[in-house]
Structures are given as structure tokens and as C-alpha cells.
Design goal:
Layout: H1 2-32, H2 49-56, E1 62-67, H3 75-88, E2 92-97, H4 103-113, E3 120-125, E4 128-133, H5 134-137, E5 138-141, E6 152-156
Parallel strand pairs: 1-2
Antiparallel strand pairs: 1-3, 3-4, 5-6
């Protein structure tokens, strides 16, 4: 009777250890290999073939610095789009700077890039730099502003 209880206990412990190890391995693989599927009929969350070709032909690294707080209405869309770009090309290096949590780093990089606008994404490729502001990333409806409310985002342009 005692042997049987020991066998059940040992089998249970081995099962739990294997389940934890399998879960950890699947999590590690998922973190290393970004994979997503676009099930929309318009393929609105897919990267176009033209963009894939451009990303594949990059000769140098593109440094992308995103100056946004996670509370920004553009943060989630920008994060998703830049994650898809980085998944296609290992030449895309993205750095997210939260101006509220990292004011010194924000000031240092803002001076380096010569920007002063919040919700800005900076793309650096070789000696060229491109700045994309929130007004360029999205379309806003300003009708509510006449009633003292903040403008609402209507569409993300990417």
C-alpha cells in the first residue's frame, strides 16, 4: 500500500514538473518567434509585398525611437505596426521611450534628434532621419473641440 502511494506521488510530481517545463518552453519559443495571422478580408493587418521587399533590401539598420506614453491613443497601433516590421526584418531596431517615466533620456534624445513634440516616432537610416508626428500618424475629428473636449482619433495611417 505504501509503495503504491509513493508511486502515485512520484508520478504526480513528475507530471507537474513536465507540465511546467513544457509551458516554459512554449512561452520561450513564442517570445522568440513573432507570429500573427490576419483574418480580415481586406488584409488590413498585413504587411504589403512592396513593404516586405523594401524591408528585405535594407542594407543598414533602421533605428526607430518612439516617444510615446503607453496611455497615448496611438501607442497600441504604433507598437503593433513596428512589431510587424521588426518581425519581417532584423534590421529594424525599435526603442520605446516613455517621456513620463524617462524624462532625462527623453530630453537627451529629443536634443539629439532636434524634436520637441510628444507622440513622435523618429526613423534613422544611415545619415538620414525622418520624423513622424501624431498628426501624420492619424486622422483626428476636431468637432468635439468646440465643446471643450479633446479631439478623437478617427483612423490610424501608420
Amino acid at each position: 500500500m505504501r509503495k503504491q502511494a509513493l508511486r502515485y506521488t512520484t508520478t504526480g510530481i513528475i507530471g507537474i514538473v513536465l507540465a511546467v517545463a513544457l509551458t516554459a518552453m512554449v512561452n520561450w519559443l513564442a517570445a522568440r518567434h513573432y507570429l500573427s495571422a490576419d483574418w480580415t478580408s481586406s488584409k488590413m493587418y498585413s504587411i504589403s509585398d512592396k513593404t516586405r521587399n523594401i524591408l528585405a533590401d535594407l542594407k543598414e539598420e533602421i533605428r526607430v525611437v518612439v516617444f510615446m506614453t503607453p496611455a497615448s491613443p496611438l501607442y497600441d497601433q504604433a507598437f503593433e505596426l513596428l512589431s510587424r516590421y521588426a518581425a519581417v526584418s532584423d534590421k529594424i531596431k525599435v526603442e520605446y521611450i516613455d517621456p513620463d517615466k524617462e524624462p532625462l533620456r527623453t530630453k537627451q534624445l529629443a536634443e539629439q534628434f532636434g524634436i520637441s513634440v510628444a507622440d513622435t516616432v523618429v526613423f534613422s537610416y544611415g545619415d538620414r532621419t525622418k520624423y513622424v508626428t501624431s498628426d501624420q500618424m492619424a486622422e483626428y475629428d476636431y468637432a468635439a473641440a468646440q465643446y471643450g473636449q479633446a479631439p478623437s482619433m478617427q483612423a490610424f495611417k501608420g
